Amino acid sequence: MTTHSSQGRSLEGVRRLRGALGILGVAFWILLVVPPLSGWAHRYEFVQALQFSLFAIVIPVLFVASAPWRRLGLASRDYLEVDPDGKVLSSVDLRIVDRVAISSRRVTSHVGAISLLVGFILVAIFWRLAPVVDYTNRHGWMLVPESLSLVVVGGLLWLDLIESPPMSPAVSRPFRIAMSAIAMWSVWIVAYLNAMSHDSWYSSFHHAVGGGLSLWADQQLTAGFMWTLSAMAFLPVVFWNLIHWLQTEEDPTDELVRLLRQERALGSTGGSTPLS
After folding, report:
1. How far is residue 62's CA from residue 24's CA, in Å, rounded to a whole number?
2. Which residues contact 68 (CB under 8 A, 6 or more apart)?
3. Domain boundaries, the chain
4. Hey, CA dihedral for 34, 36, 41, 42, is it positive or negative?
5. Across 17-21, 168-172, 247-251, least confident range
């Protein structure tokens, strides 16, 4: 009775945490598109970079981690029990996200995961191009397609990196480690190139000598925010999957013992094993 009660409290705590993550993601989104941050993003490069990093990385991971599918009515509220072959073992009212989750368990698509990774990198680079950033700064309505495209593409990528019940990543842990590292490095490289540039990439940001924030300081803050936020999001995924992957690997000593037992079993039955 106590075990069931503690498990119930644990599940309720997880649900509350997921709900809080979803609320935090929505709060970040609203905070970025209304004054004063939306105005500061037109004046300072580092604020615009902060805005980009939250749209591309932080908000998508918060949204996916919150697993809002049941609250939005897109997944059954019942527990979806599926065997390794993708066969539903429990009787539930299947909805669109349930069907997607079942399909992903039946087919492991590394090609699809690579496509999502490439799509994320291309969309992220597009919104950091100088003409695009300058045009966005001059036309406030561009913030809507920027935020939507980055959040959607980023969310699709994170669905292949972390659990979002009833959906789970369709690729192996080593593949998730590689995807996380490559996505993080792509953001780091763009930030590094910008920070090392002697001139600003973006003509829409004006830096007056001797007044306000200098070009150098603005560029360093830009790189700092992009490096920090991407590392905070992707590095935990890398280490979490690495630890669990190593824990599932068979101990070499156990493997040696198993081979010796097999050899003895063959010898006792009159068989022989080739020497290597």
Report:
1. 7
2. 18, 22
3. 2-268
4. positive
5. 247-251
